C-alpha cells in the first residue's frame, strides 16, 4: 500500500492491496476500480492559468483509471494491456504516464501515451521504453526537477536518464558486506529544485549524489543515523530538508544536508514504509507496516493518525468477538489487543496487555500475546502472554475486569506460570454472570493437564475478588490441546491428542471419552440449540467427526482436510473450512443432517487460517434460501497474508453502487435544486402533452443520453472544451431517423399537400393525409390520436420555422 499527498494538501490518496485505513477524517472510497491496485498518483492539469488536481490509479490487470476523487467515481479507463507494477504522473508530461511493466526476467520503465478521444473506456497502446532493468518497487524510481531526468536504483546500481539529452549514466557502489550490513540501494528521492539525488541503503546510510551529469566526476556525501535499513526518503517542498524513516519507527528530519542539524519524531508505532509530502509543504504523512497512516506537520509535530485493521506479524490470539461492542478482537501492536469495528472500518481502541516497551530489533526474544478469551457478557477478559527462552518459557495469565466508569478493562489478577509449558487453549463457561459463582475459566497446556480457575473473595475489607486454581485434570499423561463448554455449561470437552474427554462441570467427573484414529484432535465444539447433543471434532489428518453424546457413539465422519472449525453462536450451523488442491473451500452444516446446507468450493486461493461468526445488529433480509444461515451472523475469514474477507448475501450487481458502474448519478441519490427545477419542467411539459393529446414517444433522450449525463455530472475541471461538448450535446437531443421514419413520411405528404392546395380546403387535406398515414403507422404498431383543426394548423406553423441557427453551436 502507498500514500500520496495532493490537492494542495487537502487530499490524501491511498492505494494498495492491503486493508483499507479507517476514516478518522472525511474519507472518500473510490469504488469500481480493478482489483490489485498497484499505484496511485496526482497529476496537476493546467487550464486558463489554473492547476486542477487529477487522480490516477494503476492496476495489476493493466488498466489506468482517471478518478473524480470528490464523487468517488471513475471517469476514464485506459487499457494498457501489460501488468502495471508502479505508476508515476508528472505535470511536465501532461499527456503521458510512466509505468513499470514486467519484461522477461526483469522490469522496464515505459511511457504510456494517454489518448484524448471521447469515451469512458479507451486503449493506450502507444508505449516507449525509458529504462531497462529497473526494480519493481515504486520507491526505487524518482524523477528530477521539472522532469528533466529520471533516476532508478536496483541492488548496487544507480542509473540516471536525461530526457532532453537522451543520455544514460550508470553508477555503482561496493557490493562488499560490512559489519553494519550491505550497501544495496533500498529507496531514492530527487531534490525538487537542485540536481541532487538522495539514496537510502540497507546498512542505514543515506548518500547524496551530485554532479551526476558526468560519469566519472560525480560526488556523494553520507548521512548516517539509522541502525537498520532506510525504508523511504522524501525531500521537503523547497528541498531545504530531507525526511527519512525505517524500522526504528522514528522519522528523521535532516536540515541542510548536515548530520549535526537533525530533528526526530519517535514512537510512531511501527516501521515506516512510505513517506509523502503534500504539494504545499505544510504536511507530510507516513505509512507504516501495521496499516497505519500518520499525518505530521511541517514542524515535525504529530497531527493525526488514520488507523484501520492493524496488520500483525502473526495473529496468535485468533479471531474473537467482544460481546459488549461486537468488535473484532485480535493481535494489534506488539503486546496489544486491538478492538476493530467491522461496521465503521475503524479501530475502537487498543489495550496494552504486556505493558512493556517493544524493541525493534531482529533476534530478540520479547514477550508476546498468544491467547485471549471473553466471558459471555464481556465483563471479564483473560489473556495469556509468553516469552520464548532457551530453557523454559515465561508465562503469565492475566484476568481483566471491565470498569464502567473508565469504559476500559482493568487488570484484576496476574498469575505467573499457570502451566509448566505452553498454554494451548482456554475458554470461559458461557452461563449467566449475575452470580459470580457460575463463572469458570479453563486452560489447557502442553504440560498434559487442564486447570479450572474460579473467583474467590480477597481478605481485604473492600471485598475485592481474585482468581485461583480450583481443579487440575489429566488423561493418561497426554498433552491437552483444546477445550470448550456445552451450551448450558454442564459439560466440558477437553481433547488429549487423539482422544476427546467429556467432564461434568460441577463434580469434575470424567463422563465419557471419544477417539478417532488416525490423527490428533485439532478442533472441537459442541452443537447448539436443537443439535446440543452432538460433539464435533476435526483431526490434523483431515477427518471431520460427529459424536452423539446420548448414545456415546460416532454419528458420522467425513474426510475434508478441515483446517478451521467455527460454530455460529446464534444458530445450529457450523462452518468448516478445508484446504484441498491449493484452494480453500467452505462447508456449512448442521450436526444432525448428513449433508451440508451450503458448499462454496475454491472460494479463496489462499489458505484460511482463522474464522469467526460476528452477530449482526439486526437480522438481514436474505433473498436466497441458500444464505439463510447468514441471516443472524456474518462469517469472516483471515488469510495467511493477513487479508480479512467475508461472505455476502448480495450479488455483485447489488453491492456495486450505481455511481461506480456508470458516470451519471442515479435518482436515488440526493437531488440538487437544478434537478428539482428540471424535474418540475419535465412534469409540466408532460402534462401539456397530455392536454394537447400528443403522441408520447418512448424515446427519452434528455434522460438516457450519455452526453447529457456527462455534461451535468462530470466536474468542470476534467470536462473537455465547450466546442467539443456542444455538438455532442445538440446531437443527443435530436431524434434519430430510424425511430421516426413514419413521422417523416407523414411530414413529406403534408408539406406537398400544402403547396398544391389552398387553406380553405384545409379540412379535406387533413382527411386525405390521415388516410395516407394510416398504413405506415399501423405497420409500426403505434396508436395515433386524432387532432383538432386548430391543433393541426399550429403544428404546420411549427414545422415551417427555420431551426438552422442551432448548427452554429
From TrEMBL:
SUPFAM superfamilies linked: WD40 repeat-like
Listed GO biological process terms: positive regulation of rRNA processing; positive regulation of transcription by RNA polymerase I; rRNA processing
Compartments where found: Nucleus, Nucleolus
Keyword Transcription found: yes
Taxonomy, superkingdom: Eukaryota
Residue ranges of WD repeats: 55-77, 223-264
Key words, A-Z: Nucleus, Repeat, Ribosome biogenesis, rRNA processing, Transcription, WD repeat
Predominant location category: nucleus
GO-annotated molecular function: RNA binding
GO cellular component: small-subunit processome
Residue segments, region Disordered: 742-778
Domain named WD repeat-containing protein 75 second beta-propeller: residues: 319-641
Extent of Acidic residues compositional bias: 744-775
Cited PANTHER family: WD REPEAT-CONTAINING PROTEIN 75
UniProt name for this protein: WD repeat domain 75
Amino acid at each position: 500500500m502507498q500514500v500520496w499527498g495532493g490537492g494542495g494538501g487537502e487530499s490524501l490518496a491511498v492505494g494498495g492491496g492491503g486493508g483499507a485505513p479507517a476514516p478518522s477524517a472525511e474519507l472518500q472510497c473510490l469504488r469500481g476500480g480493478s482489483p490489485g491496485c498497484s499505484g496511485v498518483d496526482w497529476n496537476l492539469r493546467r487550464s486558463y492559468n489554473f492547476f486542477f488536481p487529477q487522480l490516477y490509479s494503476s492496476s495489476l490487470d493493466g488498466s489506468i483509471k482517471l478518478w473524480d476523487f470528490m464523487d468517488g467515481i471513475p471517469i476514464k479507463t485506459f487499457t494498457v494491456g501489460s501488468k502495471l507494477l508502479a505508476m508515476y504522473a508528472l505535470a511536465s508530461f501532461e499527456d503521458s504516464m510512466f509505468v513499470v511493466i514486467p519484461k522477461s526476467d526483469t522490469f522496464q520503465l515505459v511511457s504510456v501515451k494517454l489518448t484524448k478521444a471521447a469515451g469512458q473506456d479507451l486503449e493506450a497502446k502507444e508505449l516507449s521504453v525509458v529504462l531497462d532493468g529497473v526494480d519493481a518497487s515504486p520507491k526505487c524510481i524518482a524523477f528530477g526537477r521539472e522532469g528533466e531526468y529520471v533516476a532508478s536504483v536496483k541492488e548496487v546500481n544507480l542509473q540516471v536518464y536525461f530526457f532532453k539529452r537522451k543520455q544514460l549514466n550508470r553508477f555503482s557502489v561496493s557490493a562488499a558486506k560490512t559489519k553494519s550490513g550491505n550497501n544495496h540501494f533500498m529507496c531514492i528521492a530527487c531534490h525538487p529544485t537542485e540536481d541532487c539525488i538522495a539514496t537510502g541503503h540497507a546498512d542505514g546510510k543515506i548518500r547524496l549524489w551530485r554532479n551526476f551529469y558526468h560519469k566519472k566526476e560525480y560526488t556523494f556525501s553520507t548521512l548516517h543515523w539509522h541502525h537498520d535499513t532506510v525504508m523511504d526518503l522524501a525531500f521537503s517542498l523547497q528541498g531545504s530538508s530531507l525526511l527519512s524513516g525505517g524500522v526504528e519507527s522514528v522519522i528523521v528530519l535532516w536540515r541542510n544536508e548536515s548530520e549535526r542539524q537533525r530533528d526526530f519524531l519517535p514512537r510512531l508505532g511501527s516501521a515506516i514504509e512510505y513517506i509523502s509530502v503534500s504539494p504545499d509543504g505544510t504536511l507530510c504523512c507516513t505509512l507504516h507496516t501495521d496499516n497505519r497512516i500518520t499525518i505530521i506537520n511541517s514542524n515535525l509535530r504529530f497531527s493525526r493518525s488514520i488507523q484501520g485493521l492493524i496488520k500483525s506479524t502473526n495473529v496468535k490470539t485468533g479471531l474473537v468477538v467482544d460481546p459488549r461492542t461486537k468488535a473484532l478482537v485480535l493481535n494489534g501492536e506488539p503486546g496489544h489487543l486491538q478492538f476493530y469495528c467491522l461496521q465503521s472500518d475503524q479501530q475502537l481502541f487498543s489495550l496494552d496487555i504486556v505493558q512493556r516497551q517493544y524493541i525493534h530489533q531482529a533476534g530478540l526474544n520479547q514477550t508476546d500475546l498468544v491467547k485471549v478469551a471473553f466471558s459471555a457478557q464481556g465483563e471479564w477478559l483473560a489473556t495469556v502472554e509468553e516469552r520464548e527462552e532457551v530453557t523454559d518459557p515465561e508465562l503469565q495469565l492475566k484476568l481483566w475486569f471491565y470498569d464502567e466508569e473508565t469504559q476500559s478493562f482493568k487488570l484484576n489478577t496476574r498469575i505467573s506460570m499457570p502451566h509448566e509449558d505452553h498454554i494451548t487453549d482456554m475458554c470461559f463457561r458461557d452461563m449467566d454472570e449475575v452470580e459470580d459463582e457460575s463463572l469458570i475459566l479453563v486452560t489447557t497446556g502442553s504440560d498434559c493437564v487442564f486447570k479450572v480457575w474460579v473467583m474467590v473473595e480477597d481478605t481485604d475489607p473492600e471485598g475485592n475478588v481474585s482468581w485461583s486454581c480450583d481443579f487440575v485434570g489429566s488423561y493418561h499423561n497426554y498433552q491437552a490441546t483444546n477445550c470448550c463448554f456445552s451450551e448450558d455449561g454442564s459439560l466440558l470437552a477437553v481433547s488429549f491428542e487423539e482422544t476427546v474427554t467429556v467432564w461434568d462441570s460441577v463434580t469434575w467427573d470424567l463422563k465419557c471419552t471419544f477417539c478417532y484414529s488416525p490423527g490428533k484432535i485439532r478442533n472441537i465444539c459442541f452443537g447448539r440449540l436443537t443439535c446440543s447433543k452432538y460433539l464435533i471434532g476435526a483431526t490434523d489428518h483431515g477427518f471431520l467427526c460427529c459424536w452423539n453424546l446420548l448414545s456415546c457413539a460416532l454419528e458420522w465422519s467425513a474426510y475434508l482436510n478441515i483446517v478451521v472449525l467455527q460454530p455460529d453462536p446464534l444458530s445450529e450451523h457450523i462452518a468448516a473450512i478445508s484446504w484441498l488442491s491449493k484452494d480453500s473451500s467452505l462447508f456449512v452444516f448442521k450436526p444432525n443432517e448428513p449433508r451440508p446446507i451450503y458448499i462454496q468450493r475454491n472460494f479463496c486461493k489462499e489458505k484460511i487460517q482463522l474464522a469467526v461468526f460476528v452477530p449482526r445488529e439486526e437480522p438481514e433480509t436474505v433473498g436466497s434460501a441458500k444464505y439463510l444461515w447468514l441471516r443472524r451472523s456474518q462469517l469472516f475469514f483471515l488469510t495467511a497474508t493477513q487479508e480479512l474477507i467475508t461472505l455476502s448475501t448480495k450479488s455483485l450487481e447489488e453491492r456495486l453502487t450505481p455511481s461506480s458502474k456508470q458516470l451519471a448519478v442515479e435518482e436515488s441519490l440526493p437531488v440538487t435544486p437544478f434537478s428539482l427545477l428540471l424535474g418540475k419542467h419535465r412534469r409540466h411539459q408532460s402534462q401539456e402533452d397530455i392536454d394537447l393529446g400528443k403522441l408520447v414517444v418512448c424515446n427519452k433522450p434528455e434522460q438516457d443520453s450519455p452526453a447529457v449525463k456527462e455534461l451535468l455530472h462530470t466536474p468542470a475541471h476534467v470536462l473537455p472544451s465547450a466546442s467539443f461538448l456542444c455538438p455532442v450535446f445538440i446531437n443527443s437531443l435530436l431524434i434519430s431517423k430510424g425511430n421516426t421514419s413514419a413521422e417523416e413520411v407523414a411530414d413529406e405528404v403534408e408539406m406537398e399537400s400544402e403547396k398544391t392546395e389552398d387553406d380553405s380546403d384545409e379540412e379535406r387535406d387533413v382527411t386525405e393525409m390521415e388516410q395516407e398515414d394510416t398504413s405506415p403507422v399501423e405497420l409500426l404498431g403505434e396508436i395515433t390520436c386524432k387532432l383538432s383543426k386548430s391543433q393541426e394548423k399550429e403544428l404546420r406553423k411549427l414545422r415551417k420555422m427555420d431551426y438552422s441557427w442551432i448548427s452554429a453551436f
